[in-house]
Design a protein that fits this description.
With 229 residues, the protein is α/β, with parallel strands linked by helices. It folds into two domains: 137 residues, Rossmann fold (3-Layer(aba) Sandwich); 73 residues, 2-Layer Sandwich (Alpha-Beta Plaits). It is 28% helix and 25% strand. The strands form four sheets. It has a six-stranded mixed beta sheet, sandwiched between helices. Strands 8-11-7-12 form a four-stranded antiparallel beta sheet. The chain starts with a helix and ends with a strand.
């Protein structure tokens, strides 16, 4: 194998495709490469960004953008992840775009995930954090419920001592996952979290990724893990 994980991801973008554009470091590099290819004459129908930052970058590079309604269903989505397990279940959302990422990527026929070193885990939660987006009123309820049901503490995401917010305008609780309370059944845990009143979305992405491209510290392609393409 040769090249970077970003270059390899371009192989899964057919001419005329609709593309979900993820958020975060890996997605930024992919968007830059896709933008360069479009500037060289490659045609895509349009991209659907998962964050304001990705939308602004895509516009600056001249990538055509579409609404999700106009692009639905997407041919492929490309994004990063914060954890992935041997079944290709994911934790995402350290970059705070988890809800929009899940919506867009649920609409894609194929989800390609780009990861560097340190993201592979035997069981989700091993890196100790799961973001959960909530509405303001629900903060105390969600904190109490995740402590009671899962044994997790939930810390409010703040910047400079003030409540920080997602692009949707909502606060995010970072559930602190101890080694004794890892996520052994991601789909079940996702359903239980979503059942708590006031939860907008979680960073659990069970059984969504079709392909994980694994890179080294320089993001040179090391491995490809496939579920079903």
């Amino acid at each position: 194998m040769s090249g970077t994980i970003y270059e390899r991801a371009l192989d899964f973008i057919p001419e005329g495709a609709t593309v979900g554009l993820g958020s975060g470091r890996a997605s930024t590099e992919f968007i830059k490469l896709l933008g360069a290819r479009v500037q060289d004459g490659f045609k895509i129908r349009g991209g659907v960004p998962t964050s304001n930052a990705s939308a602004n970058l895509a516009r600056a590079l001249g990538l055509p953008l579409l609404s999700l309604e106009d692009a639905f269903p997407l041919d492929v989505a490309v994004d990063g992840a914060d954890e992935w397990d041997p079944q290709l279940n994911l934790i995402k959302g350290y970059g705070r775009a988890l809800v929009r990422e899940k919506i867009v990527e649920s609409c894609a026929r194929k989800l390609v995930i780009l990861v560097g070193p340190g993201k592979a885990v035997p069981t989700l939660g091993a890196r100790g954090k799961l973001p959960v987006e909530v509405i303001d009123l629900a903060i105390p309820l969600v904190r109490a419920q995740v402590r009671e049901r899962f044994g997790w503490q939930a810390e409010l995401w703040q910047i400079d001592g003030k409540i920080a917010r997602s692009d949707n305008g909502n606060p995010i609780l970072d559930c602190v996952i101890p080694p004794t309370a890892l996520i052994t059944h991601p789909a079940e845990t996702e359903a239980q979290l979503r059942a708590i009143a006031g939860v907008v979305g979680t960073g659990l992405f069970p059984a969504m990724a079709n392909l994980v491209l694994v890179g080294d510290e320089h993001f040179e392609l090391l491995d490809e893990q496939v579920r079903a393409l």
